[in-house]
Amino acid sequence: MEAAKNNNNERTSNGSIHGPTNPMVTPLLNDLYQFTMAYAYWKANKHQERAVFDLYFRKNPFGGEYTVFSGLEECIRFIANFKLSEDEIDFVRQSLSPSCEDAFFDYLRGLDCSDVEVYAIPEGTVVFPKIPLLRVEGPVAAVQLLETPFVNLINFASLVSTNAARHRKVAGKSKTLLEFGLRRAQGPDGGISASKYCYIGGFDATSNVAAGKLFGIPLRGTHSHAFVSSYMSLDEITDRSLRRKDGSSTCEDFVSLVQTWLSKIQLLNGVFGETNQSELAAFISYAFAFPDNFLALVDTYDVMRSGIPNFCAVALALGDLGYKAGGIRLDSGDLAYLSCQARKFFCSIEKEFGVPGFGKLIITASNDLNEETLDALNKQGHEVDAFGIGTYLVTCYAQAALGVVFKLVDINNQPRIKLSEDVSKVSIPCKKRSYRLYGKEGYPLVDIMTGEDEPPPKVGERILCRHPFQESKRAYVVPQRVEELLRCYWPGNLDKKLEPLPPLKEIRERCINQLEQMRPDHMRKLNPTPYKVSVSAKLYEFIHFLWLNEAPVGELQ
Amino acid sequence: MEAAKNNNNERTSNGSIHGPTNPMVTPLLNDLYQFTMAYAYWKANKHQERAVFDLYFRKNPFGGEYTVFSGLEECIRFIANFKLSEDEIDFVRQSLSPSCEDAFFDYLRGLDCSDVEVYAIPEGTVVFPKIPLLRVEGPVAAVQLLETPFVNLINFASLVSTNAARHRKVAGKSKTLLEFGLRRAQGPDGGISASKYCYIGGFDATSNVAAGKLFGIPLRGTHSHAFVSSYMSLDEITDRSLRRKDGSSTCEDFVSLVQTWLSKIQLLNGVFGETNQSELAAFISYAFAFPDNFLALVDTYDVMRSGIPNFCAVALALGDLGYKAGGIRLDSGDLAYLSCQARKFFCSIEKEFGVPGFGKLIITASNDLNEETLDALNKQGHEVDAFGIGTYLVTCYAQAALGVVFKLVDINNQPRIKLSEDVSKVSIPCKKRSYRLYGKEGYPLVDIMTGEDEPPPKVGERILCRHPFQESKRAYVVPQRVEELLRCYWPGNLDKKLEPLPPLKEIRERCINQLEQMRPDHMRKLNPTPYKVSVSAKLYEFIHFLWLNEAPVGELQ
User: Fold this and answer.
1) pTM
2) Which cofactors, by name (chains A, B) (predicted)?
């Protein structure tokens, strides 16, 4: 027991829990009824009864057939730090009835999660409805106080990492995906959480500086339309000199160099008429600031008549001084058409002026992108290398919530079931184990739940997998590989080996690998095949025995 | 100037900014490009140029014609505390190019918002598209660093308070509205923000204890299904005694008293067969904990056959001892039907057993409620007194984001316009004032923007209000009352009277009053009439002059 205690302490003190603690996540981040129930349990002297709760969701989001599980590390950090301050206890006292006994608040004062056990599927795993993501065991009052924070921490995390994975799926592996959602996110932490969990789901970088600092996520960003329109004319550029990259000399009039290039380009382009001079001034000014990574937003005035020629003139001038420009961003209009036109233009410059690599300048597109617009762009054909995605990604606009629930499945070694007229809402009782069974081709075939004490499925041995509620749906499976899904992340009083909490990059890699491992028909956008989730024959019998026992017998009147 | 500085300091130190600071809201809660632009402005020695930005949205959410403006106080608190720490400056340095000059980071080190001015519409005001919610003036680099945090803080706040107001509108004034969304919210702060801004929008209470503590919002909560199913039988109740409310004596066997009442009720009910005994045990246990405010969730097994009779038996037994029960919560099934049945049952008990007030017990309903289900319940007829609303409310499921933008409208006293092929995206240039003009019946008639230096509209004097972009849409108005919308919340270097930041309750009252003041046809759910937003004749002319000036002339090819 001491060893386990030490284990817990290690998790809280020696940094084996990575990353910062969200200061908002305290035991008061809770529904009031968790405290009223805690009091009622305590008053009935029932608070120490050992309960088992399953945390799971009922339906995959976004019309898909898979979900990426995220948020675990924050739950474990929460449990490691679970302790009510005097101030918080006072507030709970004010919020409950004045008749509540003082001794309850002494109990709250001493409450921690050292006798709670948490078993979970590793973060970043592809998961499915009904299979417990977490199994939490411990004194019923303590475990109920974990419900709201755990569900809150997992719901949005899993939803947004799934959304990110779906965007990655449609964009394809070769594209760079940038999360640009902070401004439209649901509050400051909605933005920070989105940045973190989009990274897990397969995004490459974020614009969110706070998330970059907190989690080490790569950052990206250039300039906005306001920067462009803050310039009026080239006269605003007072210092026109720029040093060559190798430091060997200085170009005294970089502006003239740009203008010379612009004339050549105009001839090539065959379009006469001036480009927007305030835009040109802004680009030159931005190039002075970032000569080594010149990226420009080219749609403030007119992409093909102004933004692209202006950008190319600056990029070519930078090239003369040994710098290599980065590329452009398109933020409006027909992104497919404009990206192809821009690419064609870059290639013609590469060819005409003999500038190697100019044709491969990076084209980034943004502007209300989502799964559907990415899909449409793919079908139309485009030349975009990187997508900046905001609103639809971070707010999970297509479906703004996941229905994660936390259900009592056993108390005092008595299995409990929650009935409902809606079968999909009936809970699966008992303290359970779950396994993922893999087939010959290496794909996961089915997840199966069994009672805690049943022997595990064995490689090469036939096992009957039953739909938990539909009698006729069942299949024999001979697994080629068996993976137990729940692992111990918080041992309570047990002297158990703890599963490590990996750094964010590893979670992201796990997620990407997991997604690649899935059979493609489960992952497709249109009419995906549901992945099978089952129970053992024994558990099936028991569920239905309990169901009949608990359900009232109707009367036809 | 000193006086103004003091004003700022007062705002930061003497508590005139109410409530706590969100620790996530630091200057790094920003898009990287705000820092790259700051560097580029600085490098071009343009960073101190005086710029004016408007913060506004383009379209009302949820298919409606109004929006509740929220989030202002958090913006003012952000600006009051705006200061980069050494640690943050180091991180910005790492995130920008290594070629960035050191002196820039000295500039960041000294940067605060003492020379920024913020004019805003008071929080809790009903607002409309295109009208600036905030006008922010100051050195261009500093103001750009406010864009992302301001937009983040206002977007979700305004969206969710509007959503709450819409729910209130359909529920009606007499109902109690409870926000129960923490578990499904977009992260911890998504939940806390939702609780705060739903309260502003007209909700009465929240289940979120953290929000209760932070903002003084009333808290509500009873127990969950897990509490009910954690009980197996009446044998679990060991101490069966309950003291009378007046303390005069003790009922030694409260359980028997309940059982006696249950038998009487069963006879009245005409339904034979036992109610669920584990549910009864849970209710009795909960009553022991909260005899003075007994509220029970009655749908764990069967509402009419078990939950209601069990609840009534406990409530009647409590009544014998001088306690008054609170009511029930329904969390599944046909809420209209069940609430009517429950009410009928309560009334028959009041009549049959002569228990005054029993028929008026509070019926609370929850379970995936939203505007549509509330509307449907109203049409069907119901007996619900209080609604607990979660997912759809707090995640703004029907529309998960508002499109607040922040646009440059003037720099160095030069008006700027942002063009777009989509007219709705063209910005309205110039440093402006805005007014709300009221008609004879006291309703707001139209909002009008004018240039900064134009004389304000006068009561009783005819003024031409023009649609900003459609030439033919214009109307003369003779206002009976004129209200200037923008007020000074942060004075910069000016010695201006500061608008107070009212406490949350006042903001909520303002919001409720504002909503009641609107003409009903703007507020209705189906096909509401758009509220008119206009510009003065002079501003109209100027917008179109600038537009023609900036827009490229097309070539038909």
Assistant:
1) 0.95
2) Mn(2+); Mg(2+)
